[in-house]
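Give me structure tokens for this 219-residue protein.
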Amino acid sequence: MVTAYDYPSAVHVDEAGIDILLVGDSVAMVVHGHDTTLPITMEEMLVHCSYETGVRDAVISATRMLKEGGMDAVKLEGGSPARVEAARAIVETGVAVMGHVGLTPQSISALGGFRPQAQVAEEALGVLAQAQALQRAGCFALVLECVPGPIAAAITASLTIPTIGIGAGPATSGQVLVYHDLLGMMSHPHHAKVTPKFCKQYAHVGQAIQAHKLRLTQS
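Here you go.
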């Protein structure tokens, strides 16, 4: 799974044979330049194709994402009882839901920033319980973000649905990365978004542009 937010990136991801294309809220940081994913709105997300506090709003938003955004499924962050209830309600309407536990960017204020999760036994058991609850709610797959590899492996083994890891070791069913991280596009010194250490960069777009400019000025 790889993120994509516009036609060119979607074409690149599709032609590479990637199984799932994710239009994620990371668009807030890598496209709109925000320091977190929190400022992105429902309307802005639809342009690139959040669900809300209540179950009814969550169902309405999920339906809009499919009808107006042309999506095949929605991804819902968090594993609290309210989130699990929302996931179940959305699934019951016939909308496919992918869960997301561990580091959930929409909750970074409560989590203390972008930091690894499930570092102690109590937290790890909590993430495991959330993952299992989301599976029971009907999620077809689950993102595990920034949890230790052994924990991700144990969670994956406990589920019958596939897991998709990001910063969660090699033992998940699949992997997801942000398009802009893969291509080395987030190197601006004044931006809060930095490429995670676990992400291999296969290109450095900024360096290519600088090299082009240098070639022109020296010719």
